[in-house]
Amino acid sequence: MGYALIISEVRRGVFEERNLDAIGIANLAGKDAYLLIPEGNYNINGNMVDKIIKVKTEESMFLNPLIITGLITKIMDSSASPEMVIFTHSSSGIEMASYLAGKMGLPIITDISGYEKNGDIFFKSYYSDKVFGQFKKTKESPLILTVRSGSFKDFATDKGKQAEETTVEGLSGIEERSFIEYVEEEKTGVDITKAEFLLSLGRGVGNKDEIPKFEELAQLLKATISGSRPVVDKQWLPKERQVGTSGKTVKPKVYLAMGISGAFQHIAGMKDSECIIAVNKDPEAPIFQYAHYGIVGDANKIRDKLKDIIQGG
Amino acid sequence: MDILVFVKRVAATQEEELRIIDDGKNIDLSKIPFKMNDWDNYAVEEAVKIVEDKGGSVTAISIGSGESDEVLRRAIAMGSKDGILIESNETIHDPALRALAIYNFIKKENMQFDAIFTGVQSEDDQFAATGGFLAGKMGLSYASMVIGIDAIENGYFVLRRELEGGLQERIKIKTPCVLSIQSGINEPRYVSIMGIRKASKVERKIMKFNDYAGSGDAVIDLIRWSYPEKKGGATMLTGEVDAQCKELLEILKNKGVY
Do the Cβ atoms of A197 and B252 come within 8 Å? Predict the structure, then answer.
């Protein structure tokens, strides 16, 4: 049995929960899980993996694809090659995984959310989850993966024994790319994470001129306005209103999503809402899989009708 | 500063239903409109802004069928100096194959640049791997999820990368380098029909993908398509719009938020 090398994600002293998905797929694929992590006081259940490789270095080195690629290359040269190198499908994960693949000329499949052991088949999202492509590698070689958070964590189980630990020498900075600092998003007056009722808008509302009409509806409903990434990117709504992995994670009593199709980065930020209601033109939109109630229809028409009803009676 | 920007023509499926056909072998895109990949639109804008400020030129390059010429025209209308189509009539799923062809193209044609820009990912396959693979192969420095360029000093970019939950990291990166640009980094300029028409007069070169594909073998293979697993799904409110809306308001009342 071969092993999978898992590159952990750590942020300001925290071992991120999304690492469990990488451990989970290693288990599913029947590989020993070797966890690569910077030395530090991270809270890890050592029974979940077979080996922990600690690197004498600081956290920011694990944000640098050039440095991490150098380290992985060294590990692969000095011991048996892993059969898989697994990253989280996150900002840093995709950066490191693709760089490593190019440097070593290895196959890469990203954003894995499903696996079929029989045939060694990986499922990856296309078109924001409207369809999935099923992939196989075409020749024998280590495979580089990034895994979608939330997909495999249930398969990260206690193995009943403590992982073996080793420490490898530190990494030093390089001139090609260097970390300066973490930057926090500016704090503003609105906090959508505190709202009980969010009226959330997506690209399906059409254009910026429609936004004030939704603000009127929000006022009538006493709801707070939030939105998906494309709406914020287009500057129809300010950044502090963004729901999703790169924005806020929300858990309101009611999440009313209008014109949002439900990319996984968005779903990750709202799936724990108590009640999700979705309005979308496409009956196959992924958001309907997560919603409790749905209406297939035009967000703007539904908006106008809701306003009519409320104002009329 | 000379910047190469890679742009892709993709199916705009947000409001469209996608059908899997031919026993899972293909998806039907015949009735779906196409456009420039959103992320690439931001990448072109960022490159053009830099060149407007610092001088130099932007060259837009697209791998795809002859129809990809439309995204090159758009990139030129936005301010790119020229456009190059690397023509391939087959859909390339493997990012390694795509990046290797770009690598071979850059070497063979002796393309000069200070930076290569790509979008973080394309809306169709969402691999998010072409820029990184290319940088690794070329041995250049790399950053993805670039959400702000704070300074361009001699031989360096100082820029911000988006991490998660509103957290960013600021880094310093040496040129030449590859940067994958995140959506929302800027406000891409409006492109008029007139602008596109004018851009059509700029000559676009056409190259053949096969001349750069090397062995041409993908290292991963898409064997079939499938729909997402159904998770139970929503209770659908049906009937006329009026009835749907009344039912929706009832639900809000029951939940105690209205």
Answer: yes
Full set of structural domains in chain A with CATH: 3-168 (3.40.50.620), 192-312 (3.40.50.1220)
Buried b (16+ CB within 10 A) or exposed e, B157-168: bebbbbbbebbb
Who among A95, A111, A290 is closest to B132 (CB)? A95
Chain B nearest-CA distance from A91, in A, is: 5
Tell me whether residue B250 is in a domain.
no
Residues 173-212 of A with CB under 8 A from B: 175-185, 196-197, 203-204
Per the DSSP assignment, residues forming a β-bridge with B173 are A177, B157
What CATH number does residue B158 fall under?
3.40.50.620
Give the model confidence (pLDDT) of A15-59 as tens digits: 999 999 999 999 999 999 999 999 998 999 999 999 999 999 989
Q: Is A269 on the interface with B (CB under 8 A)?
A: no
Cβ distance of A126 and B16 shorter than 8 Å: no
- A113-134: per-residue pLDDT in tens? 999 999 999 999 999 899 999 9
A95 with B252: Cβ contact below 8 A: no
Q: What are the distances in angstroms from CA B225 to CA A258, A290, B11, B24, B28? A: 28, 22, 16, 5, 11
The answer to whether position B252 is within a domain reads no
> How many residue pairs from chains A and B have C-beta atoms closer than 8 A?
308
What is the residue range of B186's domain? Answer: 2-230
- Nearest-angstrom CA–CA distance, A284 and A230: 19
Provide ipTM, 2 decimals.
0.95
Structural domain contains residue B83: yes
In a domain, B239, yes or no: no
Q: How many domains does chain B have?
A: 1
Confidence grade of residue A313 (pLDDT, cut at 50, 70, 90): low
- How far is the C-alpha of A298 from the C-alpha of A169, rounded, in Å? 58
The answer to whether A302 contacts chain B (CB < 8 Å) is yes
